[in-house]
Amino acid sequence: MDRILAVDRSVCGGSGTCEAMHPQLFAVGDDGYAVALKTRLVDPADIEAADSVIDVCPTEAILLTAAPGGADGDG
Ligand code: SF4
Question: What confidence tens digit (pLDDT) does each residue in 14-28 have?
Fold first, then answer.
């Protein structure tokens, strides 16, 4: 099932761990907070990558949730 990836900038500490691990998914902006470069994850490899960063983000700022309205019916 697709996932929605987001960074809660109100708690992100700007450590850059997410960008260092998976620069295809995260970037730390000039303001010092991370943003998600992809917000809807379809590729299982992207979902696994995002999941692995959740475990190491020091402030638990990374949010990964099930995408609403999955079209293919077996999720
Ligand atoms: S790992 Fe977490 S705290 Fe560090 S920049 Fe990424 S989202 Fe922010």
Answer: 999 999 999 999 999
- CA-to-CA distance for 1 and 3, rounded, in angstroms? 7
- CB count in 10 Å sphere of residue 8: 14
pLDDT tens digits, one per residue of 28-43? 999 999 999 999 999 9
The two tokens of residue 10 are 């109100």
Based on C-alpha coordinates, what's the Rg of the chain?
A: 12
Q: In this structure, what are the phi and psi dihedrals at residue 15, rounded to the nearest 5 degrees?
A: -65, -25
Ligand 1 pocket member 16 (CB < 6 A)? yes
32 lines ligand 1 (CB under 6 A): no
The two structure tokens encoding residue 42 = 């379809």
Contact predicate 3/67, CB 8 Å: yes
